[in-house]
Amino acid sequence: MNATDSHAWRLGTLPLVLLLAWAGQALASDDDLPRLERTDCPTEALRELGASCHTFHAPENWNAPDGNAIALPVAVIEPEEGEADEDSLPVFFFPGGPGYSSLGEREYMEQLLEDIGNRTLVTMDNRGFIHAEPALECPEYAAVSPYHNIIHTPAITASLDPAKRMETITGVVSDCYRKLVDEGIDVSQYNAHAVSRDVDEIRRLLGYERIDAFGSSTGSGTVVSYIQYYPDSIRAAVLGWAWYNHLRNRPPVDELYTAKQSFTDALALCVAEDDACRELVPNWLQAIDRARRTLDERPFTAQVEEADGSEKTLYFDGAAFLDTLYLTLADDYAELPSLVADIEAGDYSRLPDFFRIDDYAPEPEAPNYALGYFLAHVCNDMGSNRPSVADSTAAVAREPAVLGFEPPWLCAWWGEDGDVPAEHNDPPVSDTPALALHGEMDPCCTPRWSEHLGRTLPNLQYVVYQALGHSPVNECRSTMVQEFLDDPHSPVDDSCRDEVEREPWVIEPPAGEGSGGT
Length: 518
Prior knowledge:
Layout lengths: L2 H8 L5 H11 L8 E4 L5 H5 L3 E8 L9 E9 L13 E4 L11 H11 L4 E4 L29 H4 L4 H21 L9 H14 L5 E6 L1 H12 L4 E7 L4 H4 L3 H22 L1 H6 L6 H11 L2 E6 L5 E6 L1 H15 L3 H9 L6 H4 L16 H10 L8 H10 L35 E6 L7 H7 L6 E6 L9 H12 L32
Parallel strand pairs: 4-5, 4-6, 6-7, 7-10, 10-11
Antiparallel strand pairs: 1-2, 2-3, 3-5, 8-9
Helix pairs in contact: 4-19, 7-8, 12-13, 12-14
């Protein structure tokens, strides 16, 4: 029985006057906002999982209820009859990306259901996502985005001049903003502050007094915003592989150096575990910088074929090396000692595989993303902390590698600040119990973020899963999430955190000076 059905069942016990009042509310005008309507599910995956689906209607601007309206799909997936945990709260899933819709991804949702056990899952597309109205569509951004055109984005490969690489993106960002404004969308309203209000109204309309929350990546940042704005509505939070708003919106060089430390930490593991690794990379503390310097002095280039059959040259310098490793460390960490040793020796034979040349896609797409929402969320959550064009231009000149990292720098070319309170990016202060999950080989979302968040969330505990990267999937994850949700105020048993073994380190001397071409 879903929440809506359970409300209807209870009506039989109400006095007639209350029944009539309820009926009047149920038959309210389409102009009444916010409201929740039972509707067909938007995806086959939700239908196969037996979800009860709704459409949430609300003002685009919560402070202007007579203006534009939005419509969001909401799905409620109940446990099998008789299997629900007594006294458990529903778990609301906060999707990440930002802007990634999982509603059509059955395997993804089945993993969430396994994580939470015999509890109700409430999932949705946030405002601006692909199944929402309006959807903030800017498909042209896929061709230049450092996140959606993985590795071969012009931000990394278009030129050896960082300023030219920057210019391939900034015009597309400005065009996206203007397109959305021309469509009549109040772009400033697509941010974690507004999403938090949406979620809390959905909670209320579904009849839940309180909820538990599960965030994924940037969705965990939105969970933290929800805790900040609606502390009485949430009991506990699972923060999966999290990017937190108040940290993500710092100067991007912060994230670069946090990620770079992850690369060196991986080499340190190899040196600690294998004497042959120390012999191969005796200067392991300097190895990442030396590999970068080598590629800056002699970049690696590759020829790829475009959709029209013409050839295109991709350029990979030292910044491209750092940017690519940021995206691929979970897959490449075991080979990293040999990779850096080869590069320093002038042996580039591993680089076609490292830079995934054979995977080049001349017409990249991001089918589960509304890319206008991706940009709106990243930039609007900054509020008045957005950089100026001069700020971002100087940042790229000082450190070209920021081009391939989380893109707050590009928000200088977004048209306006998000409509968020001045305190939106303050460190959140709360006693809400939370469990943060990290992958050991996830450079974007390291335990550093949870160590920082724990200063103002004293009931935060976190765990690092050995050998795994972003969105780590293992049996231990589900075991710990369920244990935490059973008793959020007790320490979880993290003894299973190393159940995934690291890959054997690849320790091979370079083939020879200069081998492998350019």
